[in-house]
Structure formats: structure tokens, C-alpha cells
DNA sequence: TCTCGATAGCGAACAGTGTTCTCTCTTGAG
DNA sequence: CTCAAGAGAGAACACTGTTCGCTATCGAGA
């Protein structure tokens, strides 16, 4: 352990670089052809390696995929955190929410293959406390944080949902809130779940091609649903749907600029 | 062509039976192990056949899967149509909607593997006007019919959504309505899309294990979201959330009794 | 009743896959 | 300078989808 601090990392750096290259090659392979087209032999071939050599870095085909999932969730979480951070100075909470929701959708669009990887059916069981689950939790956490802050700041008042909660459901919500350490009423949690469900449902339908095919553009429909959703859970101020959606939705550099924030995950956004 | 009407079908009957057996065996194989576990060789092995013999009935592995998807959509559509038909005598439209929504969820639960098959990412491109797409359209059609009838009957008044529709979005909605032949306002279509998105989003999250894991039961949460959704799009009458959800949700035989309606698809529900 | 074309099925083969061995070379630390 | 740890190669095994050629059987027309 003399000057190992400098030299020992040498080998580990090479190893990390190889891992990164494998992952990137795998992502490319997934990009054209879907998850089913990801083959270890193909990755090895593209890298000029032997298939067996890959097993020095990944125990199996499935753990590679799992690792890609975790990276993708991390990338999504980074994008959302950056978008939310960039929007904190906006005094209009509805607009903050819309920017965050748009950031989510933009990530889903620019990382289509990763999105299908994440939100398609889980073919392989990922054990709890996995890195994959942690990163997912981090991503959804940003959404819930935004909603909770809106409620806490008084911009949203979900108390009218109270009457919808049967005793059993209320108890479940309370337990969940305690588990998450979220200082928020059961009605607020129910409202957050409504919005999260709406957002996820829309993107799932859109990206898997199950929205009306006659549409040639779902931007406005998405904005409308995301704003209506917060109205529904008790956003107190009137929203001018025409003006708030006016700024062209595809120029916002919110996500793009944040992709390289943490080097650990920016490979997934390349 | 003498009495071919009687005898020629003999061979075709055998062929149809073999096709049915192949599909059923394939479904079983998918049931434990996911889509990835469906192998033609495995099916052939289980049937005491040669892999190559299967190609007399299905051109390829992907075609088989596509056929299973179409069957599954057909089964879902049957279940929804039966549930909706069974609920038409209920004078309370909200309750009709809830029964239909529950039927959807029950189908998703009892046909978990089919559900993941249908709403996971499309690995293989299904060309338009495919039987798969037709059956899907039939299934979603029931949902939209219910919503449209609620609006037409005056139980739902979505006109407050009108202010949310920017001109471009309104035009798209109108065009879609014309394409579907749905005599309904753009606001009504937007409302129907909101509800459909909410329903799909919930089931997608629930069945793919992305709702809060601390919950031990999502029945009440589902009912709450489905009822809140119709309130949101303008259901005019007050809903007693406590009483309408009171009847135990898992005794309703709506779907089960209807599964054998059409022999063409009941194999998928077996 | 006999014959003939269509059909079902078999068996071998090819190319591809994940995975596991063993064996060799290089590299970095003592 | 030595030597263990790591990286990689290469062969092999069991499996996959798919194709091709062969052989029975079956049903319809003569």
C-alpha cells in the first residue's frame, strides 16, 4: 500500500473503461433491434473480443440487462433532477410542474429504447434493494417531491379528495407516507398517485403506439392532460392553457444540458 | 365439390385442432417463464412433435406470438363486451363505468401473462390492418363507447374541458372523432382519452410492480382513481365512494361467465 | 376400387445463442 | 526477480429458430 493510491487504480481504470465500452456497445445493439437483439456474442464481436471474455465483467446476459436498466433509471433521475432544479426559480408552480413533466416526456422520447427497457414487462426478477430499484425510486422521487412541494406551498389543495378515501385505503396511504417519510396528507398522496398514473399512462400509450394514430403530434395533448391533472387534484389558480403551452416545447434545453451532470450515468444518455 | 361441405372440413377440423393445441401449449409455456421462455422446440417437445412440423402451421416464431397477441386482445374484448352488456340495466352510469373498469382490471389480473404480452413494448412490428390491431381496437372501443354513451346520455358533461384545448389540439381531436365516427365533441374525446390514459396507466404500474410496494391491496385505490376520473371529466351526480365500492370486488362473475361467449377466442381465456 | 396430388410429419442439417470450462499470456506488487 | 491475480483465447455443450428433402397418409376423382 505504498503509492497504490496512484497505481492500483490504473488497472481498475482500464477495467472501468472496458465495462463502459461493453455497456455502450450493448446499448447500441439494443438501439437497433430491441432488447431481444442484445446478444453477448454480438457485443463481443463488435468489440473484437471473445464471448467468454465478457464473463470477466458480467456474470450473465441478464445482469448486463439489469445493469443497463439501472443506468437508464439513473439517467432519467438525473434529467428530472436537473429539470426540477432549473425550474425552481419559476414562481408559477403549475409551470414548474409542466416543465418537469415535459422533461420526463423528452427523456422518454430521446431515450426510447431505454424507456421500453424500463417500463416494459419485467422478464427477469430484480431482487429488492437492487441498484435498479434505487435509481427508479430516485426518478419517481423527483415527481413526488414536486407535487408534495406544491401542496405544502399551498398551490395545490387536495383536501376535496378526502371524501374519496375509504378507511382501508386511507390507512394504506398513511402507512406509505410514513414509510417514505413524506409529510403529507393521505389526500395529497392519493392526488400524487393520480398524477403519476396519468403521466405514466400517457407515455406508455404514446411510446408503445396505442394512442389514436390519426394524431400527428401529441405535444398539446400531453400538456393538456398534465395541466388538467393538477387542476383535478386541486390546483387553486386558474391556468391559461393557451399561453402556458405557447413556448415552443422542443427548444427547452433543460434536459440536454443536464445529461452530463454525473459521470457515473452520462454514458446512458450518450 | 359433391358433398365436400361435409367431408372436406374433416381435414380442416384436424388442422384447426392442432393449431389450437399448439397455441394452448405455447400459452402454457409463456405462463411460466415469460415470453422469452416460449420456444418452438419446447412446444414441439411438449406435443410430441418435431420442431419442423410446427412450420406447417406457423410461418415463424414471431407469427405465433403475434397470433397469441391477437387472441389475447380478442379475449379482452370479449370480456369487456360481456361486462358492459351485463351492466346496461344498471341505471347508475357511474356504476356501469366502474363495473366495466373492474372487468378490465380483473381480466388483466387473471390473464397476467397475456397482459404483459399485449402492453409490453412491441418487439415485432405489427403491420396495420392486422388482426391484432383490429382486436385491440375492439377492446378499447368498448371503453370509449361506455364513456361516449355517458356523455350522450347527459350523465357526463365534459364541456369544462373545452377551455383546455388549444386550436391545434382541438382540430386533431375533431379529425380523430370523424375518423372513428364518434358523434361527440372534442372536449368529450379529450375526456375519454384522460380516463383511458388513467386506467391504462394504473394497470401498467400495478401489474409491472411499480406502485408503492407497501400496499397489500390496490382494489380500493383503483376504484377511487376510476371514479375520480369520471368526476374530473364532468360526471354530474355526486358519488358515494364508500357505498359504491362496498360490494366485495372479487366476487363479481361478470368476466368469468362471458369468457366462453365466442368459441373463436375462448381458448385464450382457458 | 385404384390412383394421384396434397398434406402432415420426420430427421438431419445450418447458423446462431448463452455459458462453462481449461489454458495461456500479461500485468502489477512484494 | 518472482509469483499470484487478472484478462483473454479457444474449444466445447446444450440450446434456439429455420430450412430442406424424404416418407407416409389421407381424401377426392376416375
From TrEMBL, chains A, B:
Domain of life, per the record? Answer: Bacteria
Per the record, DNA-binding region residues lie at 39-58
Q: Which Pfam families does the record cross-reference, listed alphabetically?
A: TetR_C_33, TetR_N
Q: Where is the HTH tetR-type domain?
A: 16-76
Keyword field: DNA-binding, Transcription, Transcription regulation
Q: Which GO terms describe its molecular function?
A: DNA-binding transcription factor activity; transcription cis-regulatory region binding
User: Where does the sequence pass through the membrane?
Assistant: none
What name does this protein carry? TetR/AcrR family transcriptional regulator
The organism's lineage is: Bacteria, Bacillati, Actinomycetota, Actinomycetes, Frankiales
Amino acid at each position: 500500500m505504498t503509492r497504490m493510491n496512484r497505481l492500483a487504480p490504473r488497472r481498475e481504470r482500464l477495467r472501468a473503461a472496458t465495462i463502459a465500452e461493453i455497456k455502450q456497445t450493448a446499448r447500441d445493439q439494443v438501439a437497433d433491434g430491441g432488447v431481444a437483439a442484445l446478444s453477448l456474442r454480438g457485443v463481443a464481436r463488435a468489440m473484437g473480443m471473445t464471448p467468454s471474455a465478457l464473463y470477466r465483467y458480467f456474470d450473465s446476459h441478464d445482469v448486463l440487462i439489469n445493469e443497463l436498466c439501472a443506468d437508464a433509471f439513473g439517467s432519467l433521475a438525473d434529467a428530472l433532477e436537473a429539470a426540477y432544479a432549473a425550474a425552481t426559480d419559476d414562481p408559477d408552480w403549475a409551470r414548474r410542474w409542466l416543465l418537469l413533466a415535459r422533461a420526463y416526456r423528452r427523456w422518454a422520447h430521446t431515450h426510447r429504447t431505454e424507456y421500453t427497457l424500463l417500463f416494459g414487462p419485467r422478464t427477469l426478477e430484480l431482487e429488492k434493494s437492487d441498484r435498479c430499484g434505487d435509481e427508479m425510486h430516485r426518478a419517481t422521487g423527483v415527481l413526488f417531491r414536486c407535487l408534495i412541494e406544491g401542496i405544502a406551498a399551498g398551490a395545490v389543495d387536495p383536501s376535496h379528495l378526502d371524501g374519496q378515501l375509504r378507511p382501508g385505503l386511507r390507512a394504506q396511504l398513511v402507512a406509505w407516507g410514513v414509510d417514505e417519510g413524506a409529510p403529507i396528507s393521505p389526500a395529497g398522496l392519493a392526488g400524487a398517485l393520480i398524477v403519476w398514473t396519468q403521466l405514466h399512462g400517457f407515455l406508455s400509450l404514446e411510446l408503445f403506439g396505442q394512442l389514436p394514430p390519426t394524431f400527428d403530434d401529441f405535444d398539446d395533448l400531453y400538456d393538456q392532460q398534465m395541466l388538467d391533472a393538477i387542476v383535478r387534484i386541486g390546483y387553486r389558480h386558474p391556468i391559461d392553457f393557451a399561453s402556458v403551452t405557447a413556448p415552443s416545447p422542443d427548444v427547452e434545453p433543460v434536459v440536454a444540458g443536464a445529461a452530463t451532470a454525473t459521470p457515473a450515468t452520462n454514458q446512458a444518455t450518450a
